[in-house]
Amino acid sequence: MMRLLLPLLCSAMLATAHSELNLVAHGPVGNNACVDSPLRLTFNEPPVLAHHGRIEVRRESDGATVDTVDLAATKYTDRFGDSENSTALSYEPVCIDGNTAFVRLRTQCLRPNESYEVRIPPGAFQDAEGHDFTGFNTGWTFRTKATPSSKADRLIVAADGTGDFCTVQGAVDQMKPGLTHVPVIFIRKGNYHELVRIDRERKHVHLIGEDRQGTIISYTNNEKLNSGWIQRAVLGCEADDFMLENLTVQNTTPYRGSQAEAVCINAQRCVLRNANFLSFQDTLNLSGRVYVADSYIEGDVDYVWGYGTASFERCELRSMHDGYIVQARNSAARPGYLFVHCRLTAAPGVQKCWLARIDTGRFPASHVAFVHCAMGPHILPEGWQIIGPPADTLRFEEGGSTDSSGHPLEVSGRNPAAKALAPKVESSLSAESILSGQDGWHPQQK
């Protein structure tokens, strides 16, 4: 009998030892919530989203339901950007990061100076063993605060709700279109799980992170979820005179998950400085004119590409798998991509990477130049991959290349269609020489 009782006692002990999924903290609460605040639920262990039930937010003044998240739905769509140029995108309304679940509410469903009640059904979240969270039927209320002026020179974004806005998109939407000065959006440390869209009317937007490594805009978005160059990016900008610095933008699409830009820019006189850009395929998509300095770019296939003119200074381009760094699709009327004093590095095990590739049958005027760049052994001796017919307008150029230790690099095996730059030509290639345009733009002065 004792042999039978022992397993029964152990089973009982295991059953009572199980820790239920309990809520440790939730927000927003109180009377000072941002109008763009997501719902935040922190549990005692990582929650699992159950795909049934509806999360509801109701306005207390009239009982109206202002947003419903149907957890059984297979697709969610909302408009990103606060104007007639806003973009309809598919998105995931619930993001789980560790022990915390974030629930994104639809754009502008909350109003300033209003009180709201949140209702979460039992079983919306479960623990790893399938036990239900009891939910919220009553008791979770909050009130939104007034929004700052749309003409403000500075807005603060804080994920914990202590700033003017909780999301980068909320702050961008608050900026009045047509501004000619430079409003600053200061983003405090935190992980912002969101897509950001800056439409062409919101010029001169300036995003500054509090900490390059600790201020992170991240999301999973790609060609399979939102088809199109700017649609599949985490941050998409079509506004001139945009600046971004001192933060990280990451597309969390997994390896081989299709094209997945971290940043897509189609605008004039834009600056990316002192920042990290992470993805695999198509990390940076740059059209228009863009200056990139002192930044880290990570990817594997065409992870710097586009139709524009871009200058990179003192950047690290890190290849995460065998592949291609650049694909420049510029026209013959404009320069392409220039890299000066950059480092080309690779993750462990990466052995075969091309500086650039192009199909001259489609893009015969592709222009890519590497000047005084340090290149790791993962760069193939041929350097450049060219398919298609010979093209007199093709400009694949290289000068002053070194190995990772700074010694002159042997480049005699390069593709014969590429050009070795003379020292005099090397010195003439600069950000100003390719980006100045008709307006005389000097990006280093910004």
From TrEMBL:
Pfam families for the chain: Pectinesterase
Source organism, top-level taxon: Bacteria
Domain Pectinesterase catalytic: 155-385
Gene Ontology CC entries for this record: cell outer membrane
Listed GO biological process terms: cell wall modification
Gene3D superfamilies found in the cross-reference section: Single-stranded right-handed beta-helix, Pectin lyase-like (2.160.20.10)
InterPro entries the record matches: Pectin_lyas_fold (IPR012334), Pectin_lyase_fold/virulence (IPR011050), Pectinesterase_cat (IPR000070)
Region annotation (Disordered) ranges: 397-422
UniProt GO MF annotations: pectinesterase activity
Keyword entries, A-Z: Aspartyl esterase, Hydrolase, Signal
First and last residue of the signal peptide: 1-17
Stated family: Belongs to the pectinesterase family.
The protein's name: Pectinesterase
Organism, scientific name: Chthoniobacter flavus Ellin428
